[in-house]
Amino acid sequence: MAETKLKDLSSLRPSLKKLINAPFASPATTPAPPQIRNLYQRLSREAKSRKYGERPWITIAAATTFTLNSPSSLSHLHSTSSSLTPHPTLPSLTPPLTPLLLAELIREVGLKCISFNGIPRTINCLNAFRSDLEVNPWSSSLSSVPSRTVTTSNINNTISRGNALWKSIYTPHHGKLTQKLALAHPDLPGYILQGHYAMLLADPPRHVEGGVPKQARLGRCLTSLVAIACLRAQRGVGPQVLSHVYGLRKAVEQGLHREEFEDEEEREGMERLAGDEGCEWILESVDKVARAIGGGGFAGWEREVDQDQEDGVEDDTRLDGEVSEVGNVAKEMEEELQGGTGSGSGRVRGRESKL
To answer: Hey, what's the signal peptide range on this chain (predicted)?
Structure first.
C-alpha cells in the first residue's frame, strides 16, 4: 500500500500542473517592455548630467530589474550601458566599465539582491543573464571561482565583517535593533547578521582568491543603493527603505566613499546622491523602471501607472496601526542627522547645495 502511494507521488495530474502555472499566479518571469532601452538610456543621461557617476545608476537599475524578475530587461541594461559613449568629464583615472566589467557588476548586484528579494528571483535572472552573455567572446572570462566560501580559518573574520557592516548602517542604534529582532525570534538577528551581512552583503577581502574584479565590487555605498532599490521596488516596506536611505548617508558620513572610489569626482557624485535631491532621484528612478517593467508577485507594479493619479493619494496608513522597530530606528537616525551630529552631516548638505 505504501509503495503504491509513493508511485502516485512521482507524477502530477494535469489539473495540478494547470493550477501551478495559472496565469493569475504569475508563474513566469516578467518580459522586457519595448521602451526599456530608452528608459535605461534616460537614466544614464540624468546620472551624467547630475554627476552621480556610472556605477550608481547601473546598480540602481539592475537591482530594480532583479526585483521585478525580468531577466530579459537585464540583457537590455547590459547592452545599453555597454554601448553608451563615455562622458567627457568622467575621470581618466577610473578604468572604463568594459562589457565584461559591466556583466560582473550586474551579476554582483543580483547576488546581493538575495538578501532583500529572496533566492528564486536571483536564480531566475542570473541564469538567464548568463545564458544571454554566451554570445560574447569575452563571456569565458567571467569570474568562476567563489570568494565567499566559509572555512574554519576565515569564519571569525567573516562574522566580524558582517558585524562591522551592520554597525556601519545602524550606528548608534545597532545594538538596540539587534535586541528587538531577537524578541521577534531568537534566531533572527544571528541569521541576518551571519547569513546575510557577513556571508553576502559585506564584500570578501580583496586578497581572497576568486570573486569579481575591483571595478565590479559594490562596497558599502553601492550595497546601500541595492538595498534601497530592491526595497522600494518591492513595495510595502517603507520603514526599511527609510532605514537604508539613512544607511547610505551613514556611509558618506563615515567617509567610506573615499575608500571605495578612487577619483574625487566619483566621491563627490556619491555625496550628491546621499543628499536630499540625490535620494529623491534614486527613488524616482526605481519607480520609473518599476512602472515600465511592471510584473506580478510581491512587487505588484502595473505597467505605466498614471503618475498624476498616484500622486493625488496620500498614504497615511500603518501596518497593524504601528510603526515597525526598523522605522523607529530610521526616525532616530533622522533626528540625529538633523541635529548635525557627526562630521559628515555637513558634507552631505554642502555637496547638495551645488545641485
So the answer is: none
Q: How many CA atoms are closer than 13 Å to the CA of 299, on its beta-carbon side?
A: 33
Is residue 298 within 8 A of residue 126, CB to CB? The reply is: no
Q: What is the DSSP string of 165-215?
A: HHHHHHTTSHHHHHHHHHHH-TTHHHIIIIIIIIIIISPPPTTSSSS--GG
Look up residue 188 and give its amino acid: L
Is residue 60 within 8 Å of residue 287, measured between CB atoms? no
The Cα 67–Cα 132 span in angstroms is 19
pTM of the model: 0.83
d(CA 105, CA 133): 13
Closest CA to 113 of 126, 100, 104, 98: 126
What percent helix, strand, coil does the chain show, rounded to 5? 65, 0, 35
DSSP 147: S
Short-list 168, 262, 158, CA closest to 223: 168
CA-atom Rg of the chain in angstroms: 21
Q: Which of 165, 297, 172 is nearest to 227 (CA)?
A: 165
Is 200:114 a contact under the CB 8 Å cutoff? yes
Question: What are the tens digits of pLDDT across the range 270-294?
Answer: 999 999 999 999 999 999 999 999 8
Q: What is the pLDDT of residues 335-352, one digit of tens each?
A: 655 554 444 444 454 444
Residues 320, 239: contact at Cβ < 8 Å? no
Q: How many residues does this entry show for the chain?
A: 355
Q: Tens digits of per-residue pLDDT, 212-230?
A: 788 889 999 999 999 999 9
Q: Identify the three-state secondary structure at position 99.
A: helix
Q: Long-range contacts for 169-174 (Cβ within 8 Å, ≥24 apart)?
A: 169/224, 169/243, 169/244, 169/247, 169/250, 169/251, 170/243, 170/247, 170/250, 170/329, 170/333, 171/250, 172/336, 173/329, 173/332, 173/333
Distance of alpha carbon 74 from alpha carbon 62, whole angstroms: 7
